[in-house]
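TL;DR need structure tokens for one chain.
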Amino acid sequence: MPADTAPTGTTPGSVVTRNREALASVEQVPGVPKPDPIMVVDKLTRSFGGLTAVSVDHLEVQRSVITGLIGPNGAGKTTLFNLLTGFDKPNTGTWDYYDVQDGGGVWQPRSLRGLAAHKVARRGVVRTFQLTKALAKLTVLDNMKLGATGQSGERFLTALVPSLWSKQEKEIEARALDLLARFKLDTKKDDFAGTLSGGQRKLLEMARALMTDPKVVMLDEPMAGVNPALTQSLLGHVKDLREEGMSVIFVEHDMDVVRDISDWVVVMAQGSVIAEGPSDSITRNREVVDAYLGAHHDQALSFDEEQARIAAAEAELAKVAGLDADVLIAQATSGNTGLARMASDPGEKQKPSDRIAHDDKDER
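>> reply
TL;DR here they are.
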């Protein structure tokens, strides 16, 4: 649960240092409470038909640190991002955002469930996407200016009176140019966003997210498709976000990147959180290794064991699809009788006539 009070007279740097050090005493188990969480998730589920994409019993995200979210493809990482940022709706569950303090300095929760994505962003929780969402036919500078919130000129009546919003417009443009310079995109400010490289679009998306002055930044595979020359630049920018007191949650598959920048790592598999801890302990976690490589990755299965596991998987798929499991298994294994016979009797060889008949059948 959140800390009772926030220390007075703290700076972003001191909060970061304190919260990073506090993680050293946190138990390394799924759903463990954090000393100073900024977000708390409870009983969150999301299903698509018969498939449960997310089933998170409890998860807390520590304030002002970098939390890595890893797991094999299909683990539910992006779906979890979509739920927390209002791009999707859950079947069950709640998540609270601790960003406001009362008069005594105690963090107070605000539920984000049911809020549209733009309202979540206004609360200070922003995200980027695996596939960048830059507006290709607008200039880089215009993309940045769109990210600013509370613009007076966006209202119909005030838009007709430039004197009411021109000053704010200049302030927004100055902030946008400052961020573009920070991300080394200032020379591209007048170029169309569609002309940028993949890595430059990632930088633009991250810079645009900062136009909202966020407290939580969620990055979905920020290094995907980025050339090595820009990777180090992106890593540096992510670390800078933490040093400014922001809480960063990022999805990543490159474990070298995870080890480099993350203070805490959360591992998902089949929609659930299966492990939490520092990156060095996560790489040694047996459940994590099994999730990526399979529970029997270091064992040789016999033919019968392999067929039994395939049959069990097919039966589960048939159950989800509402089909007759026995019929599906019979159809799947009918073409494997010869293989099964050869496996049971290694000395048996396929007859030349069988090979010729099989080849002719393939050609037909």
